[in-house]
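Entry, Tuesday afternoon. Goal for today is a structural model of the target with zinc ion bound, before we commit to ordering more compound. Inputs were pasted exactly as handed over by J.K., no edits. I checked the ligand SMILES twice against the vendor sheet because last time a stereocentre got dropped in transcription.
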Amino acid sequence: MIMNGEKALLDFYKETYQKEMIKVNERIYHFFSYGHSNATAIIGETSVILIDTLDCDVFAKEMLKDLQTITNKPVETIIYTHNHPDHRGGAGVFKDTVKEIIAFTPVKPMLKHYDKINDVLMQRGHDQHGYGLTDEEAICQGIGKREGKETNQGHYTFVTPTTLYEQSLSRTIDGVSLQLVRAPGETDDQIFVWLEDDQVICTGDNYYGVFPALYAIRGTQYRDLATWVETLDNILSYPSIALLPGHTKPLFSYQEIQEVVGNFKKAIEFILFETLECMNKGMTIDETVEHVQLPSQLSHLPYLKEYYGMVEWAVKSVYVGYVGWFDGNPVNLLPLYQKEYYQELKALIGEEKLLDKINQCMNNQQYQLALQLLELTDYPQLKKECLLQRAKQVTSANARHYYIARAKRL
Ligand SMILES: [Zn+2]
């Protein structure tokens, strides 16, 4: 466990997210860290094609202003790499000039009735993303700086797609030939855009330079790791000399792309296969988590650091994704309700001894153990303190935000 996760995340944020308009070639400009996400502009014969639109109107306006120092051509086409709001929120800024907005349908439909759990999903998403936290508390969102709606009085300005595709296809738009390739992974509707004449690939959120959210703690359906790996293989099969991701820094040169995306893929594949192997040996979910760690040649890579997703969450997600909640241990078939079990434990230990141990843990910075012991009893102030201290230990922005958000609500 890294004890000073807060410092690591802060250093990473300061080093990484410096806004920059990057000229990729004569007609392609990458807007890096203009928003929480990145966007790419391709200048066609008479107009501009925009791949993603940043997260909000304020950032999209800054992008448009800088784009207009390069070209007077209007943005007439928008392509969404996927449906997440942080890539679509700036679209409204272009609504006066845009003529076509292209998106893809999901490969397979979501489970029905997700709307019935909308309240809790909103709450968890709010807490994961650090909405409502101060800049100091939140630091960043791991894969990017904070969203403009949280920091710059920005707003989501969504515009509905005009063209919805189901299958990969090639198109020439305003003299630019593009391949729009289905790429399920982080989401089911994800695509990448291949610009053959430029040898440039825009990959949305299937690659970014931190350990990925193979599971999102806000609560999502199982993200199929095997499919994500296939998509990364597909991305690697293109002779790209520039890879422009939806978050974090772009990659330049064929060699760098092969190495970085290759290792990113290896990490996902490693977690999938190791988890399945542990499961096949009859390990419980807890034993599997303890066993599956990235080998150091991968975990030490700067672009696989756990500033966003975490290995442990991914392992659990694979486990549950393949066999459901039952881990094979008969004790867990029909356990006592947690409340009842904790009461028994507390009676055995005694209040005084329990509280002594909790205080001792806090003095030794064993905040996780303290939190778990606190589940046996009821000291909201101590719990709050432990959650706030635990937040400082983790590198993952998502975990940090969640601890702090829940502490503030106690
Ligand atoms: Zn994104």
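Residues 37, 84, 86-87, 205, 246-247 surround zinc ion (CB under 6 Å).
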